[in-house]
Design goal:
It is found in: Membrane. The protein is mainly alpha-helical and 127 residues long. It is built from 4 helices and no strands.
């Protein structure tokens, strides 16, 4: 299960850096400062969770856990929904896309919860 997490981490890391550069060089002056900040928030969360997926890939080498798989799936869904909705909101100006953002944030939070539960269970098995 390690390989899919690392592949997702690489994809989201690559696209996060590319989108960050796009925001810094291509969107400055085209978006309002508020929308540029919103776009950059999407990039930040994408990059943080790309690193989280990379960490899950490393953990998956040592732990076999459905909770780790769930965490990875939730992180990926969260990136797509949270960051993706922020990108689309800022580029399209369609404010209703902001309704999707909390769903993505909930996925990210649930992913961290699954990771914590996986760690808790792994620690209790080692005793």
């Amino acid at each position: 299960m390690s390989r899919p997490f690392v592949l997702l981490a690489a994809f989201f890391g690559f696209t996060g850096v590319a989108l960050g550069a796009f925001a810094a060089h291509g969107l400055r002056g085209r978006l309002s400062p508020e929308y540029l900040t919103v776009f950059q928030t999407g990039v930040l969360y994408q990059l943080i969770h790309a690193l989280a997926l990379l960490g899950l890939g490393a953990l998956a080498l040592h732990w076999r856990s459905r909770l780790l798989r769930a965490a990875g799936s939730l992180f990926a869904a969260g990136i797509l929904l949270f960051s993706g909705s922020l990108y689309l909101l800022t580029l399209s100006g369609v404010g209703k896309l902001g309704m999707v953002t909390p769903l993505g944030g909930s996925c990210l939070l649930a992913g961290w919860l699954c990771l914590a539960l996986a760690a808790w269970r792994a620690q209790s098995r080692q005793r």
